[in-house]
Predict the 3D structure of the following.
Amino acid sequence: MSQSELYVSLDIGSSSVKVLIGEVDGGSLHVIGVGNVQSAGIRKGTIIDIDATVQSIRKAIDQAERMIGMQIREVILGIPANGVVLQDVKGVVAVNSENREITDDDLDRVMKSAQVMSVPPEREIVNIIPKQFIVDDYDEITDPRGMIGVRLEMDGTLITTSKTLVHNILRCVERAGLVIREIYLQPLAAGTFALTDDEKNHGTAFIDIGGGSTTIALFGENRFMATAVIPVGGDHITKDLSIILKTPTEQARKIKHQYGHAFSDDASDDELFEVPVIGADSKDQYSQRYISEIIGVRLEELFDLVLEELYRMGVRDLPGGVVLTGGITKLDGMLQLARHVLKTRVRIHTPEYIGVREPMYATAVGLIRYAHMQDTYFGHVQDSPTVQVAETQPPAPVNKKKAAERNTEKKPGLLNRAKKVFDNFFE
Ligand SMILES: Nc1ncnc2c1ncn2[C@@H]1O[C@H](COP(=O)(O)OP(=O)(O)OP(=O)(O)O)[C@@H](O)[C@H]1O
Ligand SMILES: [Mg+2]
C-alpha cells in the first residue's frame, strides 16, 4: 500500500503569504490546509520589515494549522527570483563501488563536486539542476543509478542569489518558529508543473504576475533556462485606481477584484458601481469600462516591459507561447489583452486542486510538487515530522498515525539539501 506524505509550502509574496498543506498519496496531491493572509513587511519580494513579515507568516501558518488541527513544523520555502544568477557547472567523480555500479552515493558526490566552484562570498546557492549525466562516454543520461561505469560526470545549472536577500527571508521563517526543509526558486518550482512537457521542450515563457512584481521564467529544451523580474505587479493597478478614483487603497483593491476588467473593448458600460471619495462624504459612480481603461493602460505597459525583457534575454521566438499565472491573472479580459500586446499564443495557468483553484496559488502548489518530485528521485531523510499534533488540540487519530509513521520511516536519503544550504548561514 502506498504511504501518504505531508508537505507544507510557504510562499511569502509581496501581496499575500500563502501556506499550503498537501497530502501526496500515490503521486496525487490533496490540499488539506490553506492559509492566506495579506503581507506586511515585504516589497517586491524583498523583506523591508522583519517583525511585520514574521507576523504575517505566523498568521498564515496559524490559519492552515487550524484546518488540520496539527502544528506545522517543517516548510518548503520558495525563494523569489530577484537577483538570481544561473551558471553552467560540471561535476566529475570516479565510481566508488568495486563492481562499478553507480549508486546513490556516487550521484550525491557528483552533484556536490559540481558545487565546488568559487561562488562569490555575497552569493548563496539556491538550487542545482542536473541537465545530463555522462557515464564514461555515454551522455544524455537522466538517471545513472544502476548503470556500470568508471567515471561519472554531471552537467548542470547552478542557481545563486543574494546572500542578504535569502538570509533575511530565512531569519523571518525561523523567527516564526518554523524549520526549513527545502528551499526552491519559486518560478522553477511553479513553472515545472504549470507547463506541459511540450511547452517545456519547445520554448515557453512562464510569467507570474504577482502583487509587487512580475517574474519571467524561460523554459526550453526540457529545462529551466533563464529568469528575470520586473518590479511591477497587480498592486500598481490598485494604486492607480486609488489615485484616479480618489478612493482609499482598500476600496480600490476591492473594486479591482469585483469589477476589474483588463480589456476595455469587452468591458461593460452598464456595470456601474459607487466608490467612497477620500476626505468627502460623497460617493462617485463609475462604470466597468471606465476602470478597465485605467487597468488596461497599466497592464499594456507591463506587457511592453515583458517584451523588452524577453528581447534583452535573447528570446526571438517562443514556439510554446506564453503561460501566465499569479493573482492578477484572475482579472476578466486578461487573456485578450495579453494576446493583443504580446502577439503570441497565451494561456492562463490555474492549479487544478480543490481549495486552491486560483492562479495566485501556482507557486505554493509548485513548491509541494517539486519537493515531492525531488523526494521521489533522491529519497528523503527526515529530521522531524512535517506536522505534529498540537498540545492544545484533541489528537486526530489518522493524521497522528501518519505523523508517527513519517517520523519512524527514514528513507536512505541522498543529499540533505536543506542542511547543505543552511550549514553556514547563521555563523
Ligand atoms: N480575483 C482577483 N481579481 C483581480 N486581482 C486579483 C484577484 N485576486 C488577487 N488579485 C491581485 O493579485 C495580486 C496578488 O497576486 P499574488 O498573490 O500572486 O502575488 P504575491 O505572490 O503576493 O506577490 P509577488 O509574487 O509579487 O511577491 C494583487 O495585486 C491582488 O490584488
Ligand atoms: Mg508570488
Observations:
- The two ends are 44 Å apart (CA to CA).
